[in-house]
Structure formats: structure tokens, C-alpha cells
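Lecture 7 notes: from sequence to structure.

We start with a single chain of 443 residues. Read the sequence below before looking at the structure.
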Amino acid sequence: MKNAMEHIYRRQADIDVATRSAKSSPHRFDSPPSNQQVLEPQQAAPQPPSGWRRSVRGMARRLYRIMLPFVRPLAFRARRYLSEEVRQEIGSLRADIIAVQEQAYQRSLQSHTWAYEQQLKLTVSIIQEVQSLRLCYISQRSDMPGQKFDQLIERFMPWDDLAARLDRLESHALVSKHRFAVPCGDGATLVATNVGYVLCAADDAPMIASLIELGDIERGTRLFIQSAVKQGDAFIDIGAHVGMHSLAAARAMGGLGHVYAFEAYGPTAKLLERSVWTNGYASMVSVHHQAIGRESASRTLYLGKISGHHSLFPLDASHVGDKEPVRVDTVRLDEVVPHSAPVALMKIDVEGAELDVLAGARSLIEAHPNMGIIVEYGPSHLSRSGHSRDEWFGAFASLNMEYRVIDPETGVLLLVSCNELDRFESTNLLFARRDSSRWFSKP
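Now the structure, written as C-alpha cells:
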């Protein structure tokens, strides 16, 4: 057999050897199996479980139902026991995180408090120095002949100029004594201003610096609003920004009246809501996260470098900020403010969209013949919106309104020509009907 196999491997297959090997094999196949015979084991129907298996399964189900009310509480307690250590560790980590955050806030608060105390000390020293100079002047003037002392003072500085400077220095020192800024978390900074506490975005450095330095934004307009609004009036602030004018109007109303504040940019509107609540005006100031336009729609708000310069019209390169434009909702003022509201004054600061606001508020304006409208005018706004100067002033003239300039420092109304207005970057104007005795005194 061995020689035969070697012969097959080395040369070629031998039929006789293969036949002899098949006859000597103990296995015998009469014919190859058919496809049906091969598939029969796979297609056979499953056999039903035997009786003892059914019994065991039934007993297991009954036992599970019986034991479930007892096993479930035990399993829950076991799981809680095994996970208790992990839960305690998580709680400890959470407490550590809160402690670290609290320490960081306390350090920041301490640093700002220290800076405020240093500023307060400096302010007090300035006040004391001014007062000592006044006393020194009085004593010297009483000991020295008046004419000789006046000549001595005149050699260094005219007395009128010196007195004005001392008064201004003392006034600024007293004001700065009560002005400070405190970080409040969530990207907000609280600033004490001339109208109350105002929340600004922590990254809005120009706004915070201006409020700390001056305590005001558009001082003359703020003074005019406070003098014009009375108890029981309604004031509309379109483009309310951080709420300086809304807070000024609410303070002037003395708790009786209502302020409708509209701010399109969401983050600023949220800060305004917090400022209103902080100053205790939540019941009389309603903040609307909307822009006012000629129709209800959705528009793009282009964000400027300064938070107060956002516009519904594309900004030029010198005003564009580093943030992407956002979508905001616009509504008609006629659909929001009821015509029965005793509106005395409305302020519009919308960076070029003034005529859109007028178009959406025409019915409200016509319903209040004594209403005054404060509007910011600027040549850059006209070029941004594509309106001419005549078209812009003509929209107010169609409502039988004429204008006066609001002095930026005193709030006094001034008569200035349109040609002179173009010399300034922006100016706040008061528009009112020609026959309105509330705003324009008769000669």
C-alpha cells in the first residue's frame, strides 16, 4: 500500500489503486445524498419542550413573582450601599469646586474693595484739602488788606477761575466717593451711576470706563427726560441699551407711571432686566427683547465695536465689531403699546432705523398730540440707511412736528439749523408738534 501511495504522489493517479482502496474501506455509499435529504434536518419543525421543562419554567415564573417584592428592596439597598462611597466622593469634589469658585470670587471682591477704599481715601483727602484751602483763604483775606490780597491772588490765577475750579473739584470728589464697579459673575459688572445701579457686560470696557468716570451716558438727554416726565406718565425707550434713560424716567415718575423699554440684542436685554430688578423698578418697567420696525418680521442685527452701536443696517469698517451678526424679531410699536397709555415722551436710538420706527408707530403718535420724541440724528446714520437729510426731516414734518437740539450738558432746548447739525457726528433732537405748549413756549 505504501508503494502504491508513493506511486500516486510521484507520478499520476492509478484507477486500480483507487478502486481497491474503495472496496477495502469500511464505509459504503450507494448513492450521493440529494439536496432534499441534506436540507431536511434544517427544515424540521422545532420540537415542543418536554413536560418537565414546562413545569420547571412555570415554577420559576411563580417563584420570581413571589420573590420580586422582597428581592427588589434588597437589591436597591445593596446598590446604594456599594455606590455610597462614589456618591460621597462626587459630593466632596462638588463641594471643593464650589469652595474654589467662592475663594476666587472673594479674592476678586477683595481686590476691587481695596481699590475702592484707596480711591475713597484719596477722595476724602482731596475734599479736606479743598476745605482747608477755603479756610486758609478766608483767614488770609481777613488778616491782609483786601486789595493787596486780591492783587496777590491775581498774580497766580484769577479768583473767579480759581473758585470755579475748586467748586468743580469738590463736586467731582463728592460724586466719585459714591461711584464704584463690582463684578457680579455671569459676565456682568455692576456700576453705581447717577441714576442707580447699572449692569454692563464685563468685556464692555468703554462703557464701564465712561460710567465710572462720568456716572452718565448723554447727560443732557438724561436731565431733560427727568425734567419732562411726571408722575403717572408713560415713557417709551426704543434702543434702551443698558437702561440709563429708562431708569432716569422711572426715578422721575416716583413710582407712578410705566416705562416700555425695547432692546433688540439678547445679552444686553438680560442685563437691563437685572438692572431694573436691582433698582426696584420691576413693577413699572417692562423690558421687551425686540426691535421696533415698520412690520413684524425677522431681521439681521449687525454688532458694532461698542455695545450701543448695534444696527439693523450694515456697519462700515470703522464700526464693525468682532462678533457675528444675529437674527432678531421686529414688531410694530402700534401692536405693543396700547393707545390708551398716557405716553408723554418717547426716545428713539436705533442707529439708522428711525424712519422704520416712525412708520410702525404712526397711529400711536397721532393718538397723543402732546407727545415728545427724542431722536438721535447723525449723518452716518443717513448714509447707512440710504435716506437723504430732507427725507429724514420730512418724515417728522409730515406729522406736523418741528425740532429743537437738546444741549448735551444741560438738557436745555436750543434752536440750531440743519446745516450746523451736519457738523456733529450725532445729536439728540426733540421733535414735537408746533402747537404743543408742553414743549415749546409761546413768544
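Confidence is low (pLDDT under 50) at residues 1-13, 21-41. Keep this in mind for problem set 3.
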